[in-house]
């Protein structure tokens, strides 16, 4: 009887440790923690990694699969801009984007690149979601 209790306690502790390790590893890799609910997707870009200017056009690259990465981008206002959505084997609801302020509701291919023009934005925040409103992304345009 005593050995059974010790075995049950040991198994319970091992399971808890495995769950904690999994949660920590997913959060550290920009996994699902923070993707759902009222927050924006995981990852914040300070304007360097996914924003570039090519031939006078600002390009903001967002990877799409189980959310949007980075979830928040910072770009410059006053420059003609496109958001480039990159999908690779994306089958979830993030493969449908909505940007209400631009009147955009668009399905993305399962794998490929889709450019969405946002014109020449003024300073402010552009927000978008997946088709279900579960995953969010935003671009902060700064003067």
What report would you give on this structure?
The protein is an alpha+beta fold. The protein has 1 helix and 10 strands. The strands form 2 sheets. Strands 1, 2, 3, 5 and 8 form a 5-stranded mixed beta sheet that branches. A 5-stranded mixed beta sheet has the order 4-10-9-6-7, with no helix packed on it. Strand 1 and strand 2 form a beta hairpin. The protein is elongated, with a radius of gyration of 20 Å. About 10% of the residues have low confidence.
List keywords for this structure.
143 residues; Immunoglobulin-like; 5-stranded mixed beta sheet; 2 domains; alpha+beta; 39% strand
Per the principal axes of the C-alpha atoms, what is the gross shape? elongated
How many domains would you count in the coordinates? Answer: 2
Q: Helical residue percent?
A: 10-25%
What order do the SSEs take from the amino end to the carboxyl end, as H and E? HEEEEEEEEEE
Q: What would you report as the Rg, rounded to the nearest angstrom?
A: 20 Å
The count of strands amounts to 10
| Top CATH class of the largest domain | Mainly Beta
